[in-house]
Write a structure and sequence with these properties.
This protein is of the alpha+beta class. Helix content is about 40%, strand content about 20%.
Length: about 400
């Protein structure tokens, strides 16, 4: 299996400058390749330029501009061209499926933050000084950069990536390692119901509180964004120091919220995987759930619109994004696979409206957000616990119908 490790880098001032130049030159290569594709399609009888053709031009590009393109790793530049090729492949794939995607766009210097090295030892070397007590990664054109390695890397290193977040630099290592031994069996099964009031509720009646990280940081974010709005929009090279600090302040606050959300998701998923052999959850279509409300034109007043609950839906969409269900479910599946646990997604329809005692399904069974009261058998319970129970039962049915 492949596992990724992210470590903080400790570059010197000179190495920070070199890393910034590396990102800038790879960004220039990306934009140049994108421009070539656009021009070929528009002006040369709608000709499509492929990755192989652009990769074949790299040798000439490096020879023509040795100071900017010639000093970086050839394989990392190929990875940048592959990134563009993947963007076009995704664009055309979504068009064929009936979507309306945006055309691949040019990247600004501040929007190009990652350089990939497809193979350890080709333009990069992880732990390049094994006899040195300080871990270092060697990058072509940059040198040996110190790394704050807080955990050992297990397995064979496959790829190395350099990533910038604000003023911090990270190295991302992917390593191929043998599948770990599964955790001991506990004999426990559980269903989970994801929500807003509680982050999740289990079929055992356990409620995990929703931390609402973005809401807690809303006041600071509002102040930081107001301070940023005082400066006119301008290119990065023309920004004043105060403008740059305002930009970094907003980015730092968003980064903190993202890290808090990831930390909560990891800890919650770890606890579930450690305690239960089988976990069932709702197969939520989060993108559909967070769509904006369609406007309702007023037939009596041309150009006017009727109330459609857009303000309330916007608040709900914001809460759904703050909860981070998609990130949590991705982490849960990854941890369960490593631990040898089973995770199954089930259809969420009517899971909170069906009585777990008599099976009666009706909208009236759930009079409020929290209360469940079956109008057929008078069963009363917490609505989220009822939903989690029904999710567990549906998951067990699917597991027994499709044995491994």
């Amino acid at each position: 299996m492949i596992r990724a490790y992210t470590f903080l880098m400790r570059p010197t001032v000179g190495q920070q400058i070199a890393l910034g130049e590396m990102l800038r030159d790879h960004c220039s290569l990306y934009n140049g390749a994108l421009q070539e594709r656009r021009d070929a399609y528009r002006h040369v009888s709608k000709t499509s330029v492929k990755y192989g053709q652009q990769s074949g031009q790299l040798k000439d590009i490096r020879a023509f501009d040795p100071e900017r393109q010639g000093r970086w790793s050839f394989s990392s530049q190929q990875a940048t061209l592959r990134r563009l090729d993947k963007a076009f492949a995704a664009f055309f794939r979504r068009i064929k499926s009936g979507d309306t995607p945006g055309y691949p766009r040019f990247r600004g210097v501040n929007w190009f933050d990652t350089v990939d090295f497809p193979r350890d030892g080709d333009g990069c070397r992880w732990n390049s000084t094994p006899h040195d007590p300080v871990t270092r990664v060697r990058l072509q054109g940059v040198g040996h950069v110190k790394v704050n390695q807080h955990r050992p890397v297990v397995g064979k290193v496959k790829t190395v990536s350099v990533k910038r977040e604000g003023r911090r630099w990270y190295v991302v290592i992917t390593a191929e390692q043998p599948r770990p031994e599964p955790l001991p069996k506990t004999g426990s099964v559980v269903g989970i119901d994801l929500g807003i009031a509680s982050f999740l509720t289990t079929s055992n009646g356990v409620h995990v509180a929703n931390p609402r990280h973005a809401r807690k940081a809303a006041a600071k974010l509002e102040a930081a964004q107001w301070a940023l709005s005082r400066y006119p929009s301008r290119k990065a090279k023309n920004r004043t120091n105060n403008h740059q600090r305002a930009v970094e302040r907003v980015a730092a606050l968003h980064g903190k919220v993202r890290r808090q959300r990831l930390d909560h998701a990891h800890k919650t998923a770890h606890a579930l995987v450690a305690e239960h052999d089988f976990i069932a959850h709702e197969d939520l279509k989060i993108r559909n759930m967070s769509k904006t409300v369609t406007p309702k034109p007023d037939p009596d007043k041309p150009g006017a619109f009727l109330p459609n609950g857009a303000a309330a839906k916007t608040g709900l969409n914001r809460s759904i994004a703050d909860a981070g269900w998609g990130v949590f479910l991705t982490i849960l599946h990854a941890k369960a696979e490593s631990a040898g646990r089973d995770v199954i997604a089930v259809d969420p329809r009517n899971t909170s409206r069906q009585c777990p005692e008599c099976g009666h399904t009706a909208k009236e069974n759930r009079p409020t957000q929290e209360k469940f009261h079956c109008i057929s058998c008078d069963h009363r319970a917490h609505a989220d616990v009822v939903g989690a129970t029904n999710v567990l039962r549906a998951g067990l049915v699917r597991r027994d119908a499709n044995p491994a």
